Amino acid sequence: MSQDLLSASILIVDDNHTNCNLLRSHLLLAGFSHVMVATHGQAALDLLAERLPDLILLDVMMPDLDGFELTRRIRAAYPDRFIPIILVSALNEPQDRVRGIQAGANDFLSRPFDAQELLARIHSLLALKRIRDELDADRRRLALLNEVSRLLTAQLDYEALTHQIVTLALALTGAAKAVLIALDEEGRFSHKVIAYPHQPPRSASTIERRVLDEGLLGWVLCGRQAVVVEDTRRDPRWVELADDEEAASALAVPLLRGDKAVGALLATSPRVGAFGVEHLDLLLAVGSHAAIALENARLYEEARRQRARTEILLNQTGDPVIVADAEGRITRINPAARRTLDLDDATLGRFVEEVFGLGLADLLLRAKERHSAVSGGYTRRIPDSEPRTFHVSVSPIEGVGYLMVWQDITALKEGEQIRLRSEQAERERVLTALSRYMSPALIKRVLSDPHILRRRERREAYVLFADLRGFTRLTVEHAADDVMALLNDVFAEMMEIVYEHEGVVFDIAGDELMIGFNVPYDQPDAPQRTLATAIAMLRRFADLKAKWAQRGMQVGMGIGINHGPVVLGHVGGRDRMNYAMVGEAVTIAHRLVELAADGQIVATPSTLPTPLPAFEDITVRELPPQVVKGRAEPLTLLLIEVS
Q1: pLDDT in tens, 368-408
Q2: What share of residues in the chain are helix, strand, coil (percent, to 5)?
Q3: Looking at residue 454, which CATH number applies to its domain?
Q4: What are phi and psi of 380, to 5 degrees?
Q5: Does residue 611 have a cis peptide bond before it, meaning omega lies within 30 degrees of 0?
Q6: Would you say residue 466 has pLDDT above 90?
Q7: Radius of gyration (C-alpha) of the chain in whole angstroms
Q8: Which of 267, 291, 307 is the last residue before a domain boundary?
Q9: Are residues 227 and 258 in the same domain?
Q10: 425 assigned to some structural domain
């Protein structure tokens, strides 16, 4: 077995000490050095909370949590982590193996087992885990680099861009300091930007010459090479300045645009060996994007300045330019204006208002009143041509009159229309998704409230969980078609009741519903709605329960209700979004539904309306204080039973 696989950590979970010692001996003899042992299910969960192993060997027959239930809990607690689980048990019936796989186990080994077979299965699953972990790491790295590229390419302000580059360098490498050295067109030092964690970056126009002539940054710029320095005290290229912070290790990359160096990026840490190959790869990626972004920003700044200088050079600009005197009569038009705006010499001497209408004349009046440049949009309609949209800048010029520079933004306007249509389509998509959660009455209100699509807020909510009892057993004992038919039948009836009371269905997970009231809008009678919904659900379910019992499928339903602050908002990606409700109130409600038996509602007192409405065949009594997971102090709870 390869050495990297032998370094994997393995957790053994078995209440039988003999079995634990036997498995541990096999692993140690095979060369595994990181072996952990838990003698019951809760101990295993506690260990997992501290550190996730690479593989779990799990006994099935244990007193507190059996292997099947523990497997399900592990999968539920860590859905995004691939942790191979091998069930090791004396059970050897096919249905036991099926239960194990359905619970989430990756393999099932019956006792007595062959040690070589066990090691072979461990090797196979660890190799699979390594591949999965590498793929996950590559995917996360690619997503990170895409985000870096997006952030840098979206910024055209040169100074803001340099600040963003050093901030990213700090965040990605975990450095204590990041420095960006920028060079001018001739390759000479231009300025530097320095950043520290939790502080705004600062720029400086000077640098100690030794840094570039003898130091690490100079070496990187001269050789066009990246470098990792594990210990600066042992590297002659490191130049320590009197006012510098302590730097025990460093990482530097050149910013290259083709063969041309436009700068360099340095990260330092007070710890020796703080940087590795992974940090170098990330900083190289940042440097690659940064070099392009800096060049683009420089070109953008240069183009903007050039345009400002050439606005008054009528015949040398590609933009239409018109000059009018102080009275608003057109005195000059450049070739681009003749060509683009369909003007000729007959235009000269005429008033701007006469040729272009009141819209453009109003811009001249505003420029005159403000004694400064103004701008606005103008659509020019020429016979036998498509209308064209321009951004017109009007600048008052002393002794001349007004300079009007026209920029054709037709394509930009069309792009804006495409963007607006895209946003409208996205809004309709999200609203379509919301119809899965809300009643028609709430959807109508959402349609008149566009801010709900972007809003993230805290609210006081009434949270109701409804959970089927005995459903897991049904999934094992009955055909898939029957199981899904029962679920669809129950959920359809329950959601109809929720919509009648204008609740919001936030989640359908397996055999469980999560419902919210007083969200996303205020419902002054939310306690009454919540209780009425719970009672109606249990009553309706009683008929469904009898109906499915006739088909040999025994199932029950319990309900938990809690009240408290929650966080609301849309979560997800571009192609899938969910309207989510999270917070301690949700967690407590979920704990309460676990306490409710069939036909029962377990609720916190603040959830129920005061005074309690009169319902037929309803009994309410106070439960002894209960300690629920996640809360240190006991909770006072009420038990409501529906006959």
Answers
A1: 888 888 888 888 888 878 888 888 888 888 878 888 888 88
A2: 45, 25, 30
A3: 3.30.70.1230
A4: -100, 125
A5: yes
A6: yes
A7: 35
A8: 307
A9: yes
A10: no
Which tokens belong to 56?
């779990």
Task: Give CA angle at 209 (206, 213), nearest 5°.
Answer: 140
Of 572, 569, 573, 594, the residue nearest 582 (C-alpha): 569
Q: What is the mean pLDDT of the chain?
A: 85
Q: Please, where are the H alpha helices in 256-316? A: 277-310
Element (H, E) at 397: strand 388-397
**Distance between start and end Cα atoms, the chain:** 63
Find where tokens 């209440």 sit.
15
What is the 3-class SS of 49-69, one letter each residue?
HHCCCCEEEEECCCCCCCHHH
Distance, CA of 554 to CA of 471 (rounded, Å): 8
Instruction: Tell me how many degrees the CA angle 352-356-357 measures, rounded to the nearest 5.
Output: 95
Beta-bridge partners for 195: 178
- Judge whether 380 lies within some domain: yes
Per the model's pLDDT, the better-predicted residue between 453 and 338 turns out to be: 338
Among the listed residues 494, 616, 478, the one whose alpha carbon sits nearest the alpha carbon of residue 544: 494
| Residues 280 and 251: beta-carbon distance below 8 Å | yes
Place of tokens 């087992």: 113
| Threshold 0.70, pTM exceeds | no
In this structure, what token pair is assigned to residue 335? 């070739």
- Report the percentage of the chain scoring pLDDT > 70: 88
Query: Is residue 488 assigned to a domain?
Result: yes
Domain that holds residue 213: 155-307
Tell me the β-bridge partners of 580.
569
What pLDDT score was predicted for residue 444? Answer: 65
- How far is CA 586 from each of CA 22, 157, 569, rounded to the nearest angstrom? 43, 44, 14
Overall domain count for the chain: 4
| Cis preceding linkage at 112, omega within 30 | yes
